[in-house]
Design a protein that fits this description.
The complex is a heterodimer. Chain A is mainly α. The longest helix of chain A is centred in the first third of the chain and has 34 residues. Chain A starts with a helix and ends in a 9-residue tail after the last helix. The two termini of chain B are 32 Å apart. The chains are: A mainly alpha, B alpha/beta. The complex binds adenosine-5'-triphosphate (ATP) and magnesium ion.
Chain lengths: 251, 244
């Protein structure tokens, strides 16, 4: 069990420091609302805030699942056909460098206002990290074990499922964690332009100078990220309980 | 019967052949050791026989890859699989015969090698000798007619080596597969084999040495004078011809 006390202490200190910053008038409350005011916003807005949070959660989750599944499948295909990999990877890297903020308006034109645009935005942003990590993971299985599999006439399929995928778990784990965080970013950016969810809420709170609502929404979005992290940790933890030596480096 | 004819190997990188015109035959059921200085091509020869490397010229007859097992210098176990699962890998990969029946055979092998308590352990939880035993059991699980072993015991301490040599010899005497066993240890070669192929540095080829020892060999053989004498005889020939 990890010791949670240092973390809780740090959080308490940060909250205290934040509160003092505003109380001592170092920063104006209109720029940085004190913690109590953010809490108040949660109460005032109540259902509306949670609703927005759920909406973002749902879009980000769909985008994340879409990117995780398609990224993994593409990685499987590319790792099998190296010529294809050499063709596709540079293109993927090129698209990766195009900022999502620049694509988002285009997505609105293609998918309209609302959830579909948001999902696609989450998918696009979280797609590459998983693909890249999975590709590295699938390609780095122990050459000595590969030779062992060859001695016993393993088919490409057996090598994939019994050697490459198990050896790539640490990479998949890292890729999933990065992708899940980015999916939230992608969803919120999508909502900035397409409306709805926490992104929409932040956007309208901004125009009303309601910094407390912006903060409340930010917290919720961070919470979504934490939720994904916890879920991924839990999933891999379950796997490792039965198979403690999936990879030399810890997951 | 395995026949190696005019076998030669040259790696693209180097302009000198590792060996050429290697010629020998091994009757079925013989235990043959291969001795030679480091870098003379023992592993390469074994890898050619195992089908992992293509010879530059010549041919190998009588080796059916499906009927052979290979034990590497390192245990090469899959870290996330248990001892028992590792032993069963060849059966799973070749998908020949039921896994249940193979599991029973794997357990028998593990018991024979003193690993019955460890079948659910992962490789990281085994000692070096236990890992090597697991690898040995994996090499034997398919009941191969030919077993290729590349210095399997070289990383172990002497008493463990002796123990494993005795276990290997006992398995061999009951199962009578053909074995090609690469080693650097003269005692090991003498103890285990009927025939020893020694690398001759001058002609870059192998010649044969037959230790004059009984067919049934157990631990006590090491204490006998005849064993000392045979090792001594081998040592003399080995140093005369294998090193320049
Ligand atoms: N893949 C390879 N590419 C190029 N040269 C190689 C390759 N594998 C082996 N060699 C060369 O072939 C020669 C024989 O190597 P090999 O591994 O068969 O020696 P060995 O007799 O097994 O030695 P040791 O007793 O140290 O294990 C060496 O000179 C080595 O450098
Ligand atoms: Mg070698």
């Amino acid at each position: 069990m990890t010791n949670r006390r240092p973390l809780l202490l740090l959080i308490a200190l940060l909250l205290l420091g934040w509160d003092l910053l505003v109380r001592l008038n170092v920063v104006g409350a209109y720029l940085l609302p004190p913690p109590a005011q953010v809490l108040q916003a949660f109460q005032d807005l109540g259902p509306e805030l949670w609703q927005a949070g759920l909406q973002t959660l749902s879009s980000a989750t769909l985008g994340f699942l879409g990117s995780a599944i398609s990224g993994f499948i593409l990685a499987l295909i590319l790792s099998r056909f190296s010529a294809l990999k050499q063709a596709v990877l540079p293109v993927a890297v090129f698209f990766q460098t195009v900022p999502i903020v620049a694509i988002a308006p285009l997505l609105v034109i293609w998918f309209g206002f609302g959830a579909p645009t948001v999902r696609v935005s989450a998918l696009i942003v979280s797609f590459f990290p998983l693909l890249a990590n999975a590709l590295v993971g699938l390609g780095q299985s122990d050459p000595q074990l590969r030779e062992l599999f060859r001695v016993y006439g393993a088919s490409p399929r057996q090598i994939l499922f019994q050697l490459q995928i198990p050896s790539s778990l640490a990479y998949l784990n890292a890729g999933l964690k990065v992708a899940s965080g980015l999916a939230v970013v992608g969803a919120i950016v999508g909502e900035f332009v397409a409306g709805g969810g926490l992104g929409g809420l932040i956007d309208s709170a901004r125009t009303q100078q309601r910094v407390d609502i912006v903060f409340a929404a930010l917290f919720l979005s961070a919470l979504i990220g934490f939720f994904y992290m916890a879920l991924i940790r839990w999933g891999f933890g379950l796997l490792l309980r039965h198979r403690p030596y999936f990879n030399k480096d810890s997951l | 019967m395995i026949e190696v004819r005019n076998l030669g190997k040259r790696f693209p990188k180097s302009n000198q052949a590792v060996f050429s015109e290697v010629q020998f035959s091994v009757p079925a059921g013989d235990f043959v050791s291969i001795l030679g200085p480091s870098g003379c091509g023992k592993s390469t020869l074994l890898r050619i026989l195992a089908g992992l490397e293509a010879p530059t010229h010549g041919q190998v007859l009588g080796v059916d890859q499906v009927q052979s097992g290979l034990v590497f210098q390192e245990a090469r176990l899959i870290p996330w699989q248990t001892c028992l699962e590792n032993v069963l890998l060849p059966v799973r990969l070749r998908q020949r015969g039921g896994l249940n029946e193979a599991s029973a055979r794997a357990r028998d092998l593990l018991t024979l090698l003193g690993l019955q308590e460890k079948e659910m352990h992962f490789p990281a939880e085994l000692s070096g000798g236990m890992k090597m035993r697991t690898a040995l059991a994996r090499g034997l699980i398919t009941s191969p007619s030919l077993l290729l072993l590349d210095e399997p015991f070289s990383a172990l301490d002497e008493p463990t080596r002796w123990k494993l040599q005795e276990e290997l010899r006992a398995l061999y005497e009951t199962q009578k597969w053909t074995a090609l066993f690469v080693t650097h240890s003269l005692e090991e070669a003498c103890f285990l084999s009927q025939r020893i192929f020694i690398f001759d540095a001058k002609i870059r080829n192998f010649f044969e040495f037959r230790p004059d020892l009984p067919a049934h060999r157990k631990a006590s053989l090491r204490q006998e004078l005849s064993f000392f004498q045979e090792v001594q005889r081998l040592r003399k020939i080995f140093f005369e011809r294998s090193f320049q």
